[in-house]
Design a protein that fits this description.
single chain; Spore Coat Polysaccharide Biosynthesis Protein SpsA, Chain A; eight-stranded mixed β-sheet; 6 helices
């Protein structure tokens, strides 16, 4: 199975740490965030397409053409035109089978990703968040079917949000996901997943853990989490 990792982010809110490195290469506990992301991919993943942009040479130099036995390919997103556009850049490298899609710069739980790729249907990870208005807010039925996904609503109907990782089928590309949908002209992949949920079953998988990294203070708590995870595994 293939995985697509969106790693083109500049990380403006993390400056000056991202003056010379792309956001996925910011260090947490001595390793780039992207290295943690690659290390927790499900065993079924044998090839990864990295969508790169800002200072992409840093990523290519560090990881090369393979990492931990997985082949790596690079798709270029020359301009920051949104997550929908980023996924379109990976399309020529995909084999037409269902694939895992995730972001390079947040921390996830490996068991959550493993559960996601076992879904019979397209699926997304969801989790409660204290500030849902900053995220994509999800409405989910009792059987775990995604009913609605509203990006950054002014008045959220709940606190269950889209975490980011998705298990997608190739028909996601039938929705013209490169089209601008946001006021800034960028295409938004969650908006397209919301469209997809209107025409076919999309499942919402509850995440055990998610640590978004957007600000410098998030790096300290990320370090603490990783140290605790390592301690738990060795005890």
């Amino acid at each position: 199975m293939q995985a697509v990792i969106l790693a083109a982010g500049e990380g403006k809110r993390l400056r000056p740490l991202t003056n010379d490195h792309p956001k996925p290469m910011v260090l947490v506990g001595g390793k780039p965030i992207l290295e943690y992301t690659l290390s927790i991919l499900p065993n079924i993943i044998d090839e990864v397409i990295l969508v790169v942009g800002y200072k992409q040479e840093k990523i290519k130099e560090y990881f090369g053409d393979a990492w931990q036995g997985r082949r790596l390919q690079y798709a270029d997103q020359p301009e920051p035109k949104g997550t929908g556009d980023a996924l379109v850049r990976a399309r020529p490298f995909l084999n037409g089978e269902p694939f895992l899609m995730l972001f390079a710069d947040d921390l996830y739980h490996p068991d959550d990703l493993a559960t996601l790729v076992e879904s019979e249907h397209p699926a997304i990870l969801v989790k409660e968040h204290e500030q849902p208005e900053r995220m994509g807010v999800c409405t989910v039925s009792d059987d775990g079917t995604l009913l609605e996904l509203v990006e950054k609503p002014a008045f959220p109907l709940g606190n269950l949000v889209n975490v980011g990782p998705s298990f997608l089928h190739h028909d996601i590309f039938d929705l013209a996901i490169h089209e601008p949908l946001l006021a800034n002209g960028e295409s938004c992949l969650p908006e397209q997943i919301a469209r997809l949920a209107k025409i076919r079953t999309v499942k919402a998988v509850r995440a055990r853990f998610w640590h978004p990294i957007g600000y410098p203070e998030d790096l300290k708590s990320a370090r603490t989490h990783l140290e605790k995870s390592l301690e738990d595994r060795t005890n």
